Every structure is written in C-alpha cells, then in structure tokens.
C-alpha cells in the first residue's frame, strides 16, 4: 500500500507542476488520435450512411467487413502497417516508420471501421416511415439524406466518440509503428507502459490520470450534448 500511496503523491506533484514529459505525451496522444479520428469521420461517416441507407449488391459483405473491423487486434494492425511502411516495404519510400504519420495511419485503420459500422446502425435505426414521408413531400435524394443524417446526429456523435476512445487508449499498434520516441511519438499509453516497466509508478499514475481525464471529459461532453438535445 505504501508503494501505491507514494506513487499517487508523485503523480499529483507531476500533474500540478505540469511535468514536461507528461505534457509532451498528452499532446502527442491528442494530435495523433485526434488526426486519426478526424480522417475516420471524413471517410467513415459518409460510407456508414451509404451502407445504412443504400441498397446495392455487396452491401451485406461491406457491413460484415466493417463489423469485423471493429474488433481488429491493435497489434495485428500495427504489424501490417509496419510491414507496409518498412524500408523495403511497398510504402518504404515515405519513410514513415517511427513517425507520427505511422501512428495516425494505424489508428485510422482502428477507428474507421467503428465509425462506419456505428454510423450505419445509427441511420438504420430511423423509422422507415420518415423516408417515405420525405419522398412524399418532394425532398430530393440529397435532401433526404441530409435530413436523415441530422435526425441521427447524436448516435453518429456517439460513433465518433467510440472511435476516438478506441484509438487514444490503444497501445499495441502505436508502439509497433511509432517506436515510442520521447518528445515525438511517445503517447500516453506507450509512456505508461514504459514507466511501469521501469518501476516509476508515480509517473505511470500521472500519465494514467491524464489519459482517464481526457476520456472522461470527452464522454461527459458527449453525454451533455445528448441530454441537451433531448426533447423536454
């Protein structure tokens, strides 16, 4: 117990003094996970909406692939990305190995399926009668899609937060392709693993508290947005 209390005291001290290593890891996590999630939103939300609202050959297969992708092991994704961007790999000329670009790529592959799959579920949950009503009122296809997306915006927001939560808390892929370089690719999760392996529990606790704080703040914001939009 003494070890735990001592670690907690050191963690509080590091947070209050704005420890440089702590800030660098938090900044790297927000940049990489934020970038990966943003790219996933740009590509995943339209694709998820198309899968949820469309009716075309191969739709079932694509939905199955998206749902399968939601459970991809981060270490497997990290392995494939590492091989792809390795010096002798297909994209070796990019020289992305051990860079933030590599982390963003790996995290994108983890976040995108989640956002695609949950967005498809979100738009499918809308009452089918609403689509018929929009058609009867003379809405164009694009207008109908925009209105249906607006109707399911809170569920889509949940999908985005789920994607972000999945990548900011993962460690396997980021460690494999980012190499955990201090001040550059060392993010919160990889820093926690490193400090724990060194027996620096105070630093590990501080990093863990910051990571939990970020996740809690984003989920609290999502909950507030959901509750605020509910009809009274």
The CATH superfamily name is MetI-like
**In percent, how helical is the residue content?**
over 70%
Largest sheet: none
CATH topology: MetI-like fold
Q: Termini, distance in Å?
A: 48 Å
What would you say this structure looks like, in words?
The chain has one domain (2-206): MetI-like (MetI-like fold), CATH 1.10.3720.10. 77% of the residues lie in helices and 0% in strands. The protein is built from eleven helices and no strands. The chain has helices at residues 2-16, 20-53, 59-69, 74-85, 100-124, 128-136, 141-151, 153-168, 172-178, 188-197, 201-229. Helix 2 runs parallel beside helix 5 (100-124), helix 3 crosses helix 5 (100-124) and helix 10 runs antiparallel to helix 11 (201-229). The mean pLDDT is 89.
């Amino acid at each position: 117990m003494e070890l735990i209390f001592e670690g907690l005291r050191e963690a509080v001290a590091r947070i209050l003094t704005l420890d440089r290593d702590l800030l660098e890891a938090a900044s790297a996590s927000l940049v990489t996970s934020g970038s990966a999630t943003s790219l996933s939103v740009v590509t995943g939300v339209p694709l998820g909406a198309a899968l949820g609202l469309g009716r075309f050959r191969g739709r079932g297969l694509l939905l199955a692939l998206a749902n399968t992708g939601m459970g991809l092991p981060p270490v497997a994704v990290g392995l494939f990305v590492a091989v792809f961007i390795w010096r002798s790999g297909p994209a070796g000329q990019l020289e992305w190995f051990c860079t933030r670009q590599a982390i963003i790529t790996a995290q994108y592959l983890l976040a995108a399926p989640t956002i695609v799959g949950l967005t498809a579920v979100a738009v499918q949950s809308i009452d089918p009668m609403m689509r018929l009503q929009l058609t009867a009122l003379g809405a164009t296809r694009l207008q109908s899609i925009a209105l249906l997306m607006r109707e399911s915006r809170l569920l889509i927001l949940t999908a985005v937060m789920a994607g972000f939560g999945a990548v900011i808390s993962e460690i396997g892929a980021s460690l494999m392709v980012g190499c955990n370089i201090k001040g550059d690719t060392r993010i919160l999760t990889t820093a926690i693993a490193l400090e724990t392996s060194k027996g620096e529990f105070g630093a590990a606790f501080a990093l863990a508290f910051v990571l939990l704080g970020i996740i809690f703040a984003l989920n609290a914001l999502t909950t507030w947005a959901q509750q605020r939009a509910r009809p009274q």
